[in-house]
Design a protein that fits this description.
Strand 3 and strand 4 form a beta hairpin. About 20% of the residues lie in helices and about 20% in strands. Among the domains are: about 40 residues, no CATH class; about 90 residues, TolA/TonB C-terminal domain, CATH 3.30.2420.10. It is α+β, with helices and mostly antiparallel strands. The longest helix is centred in the N-terminal third of the chain and has 21 residues.
Amino acid sequence: MYADRMNRGRMSPTGLTLAVGINAALIAALVWSAPEIGKITDWGTIDTIDIPIEPPPPPPNPPEAKKVTETARPIDTYVPKTVVTIPVPNDNALVGSSEPLVLGDPVALTGTGAGSVTVDPPRPAPVTVDADVDPRYAADLQPDYPPDMRRAGIEGRVVVKVLVGTDGRVKAFEAVSGPGESFFSATRRQAMARWRFKPATRDGVPYESWKTMSLRFRLTE
């Protein structure tokens, strides 16, 4: 049984030869039946045709730039004020100065609407009086001579500024010029304790003001 199976699986030499021959014949038939492709060796002359190409259209012209003309700025000119003279009626309805009015200046006008106009006179400037030394205390202006300056034999002129209050007393003291600090110290003590002034006034009303004072220190025999 085993030998029979082995014999079935093997191909005989005659059958193998026949199969190879059939395949070879088929391949030969395919080769000989294929069309022959000839090789082109001469292409001949190739004619060329020039096709005209239209040139591109020219670019559009750029817009013209607008010319800017500078306008000269007007030069400020001085226009003089117009002087108008108001005639005075016969019935003396206009009360006030007969001087001509200058247009442009503020003028206070009052009237009743019946044709009469009253021009108010300008207000007078305030009357100002500067602070001054109270003559009753004039002897108290000179301070004592500083001992160190006396021993050194130094003399000099002292200039100071004082703030005079509405009551005539000194409220503040400032040194301006002098030969030494000892003179300023002596003057400061005297001013704050003993100096008295008539305060400055504006239309009779007292107000605080600064006043400059000058003192001289001299050695006596």
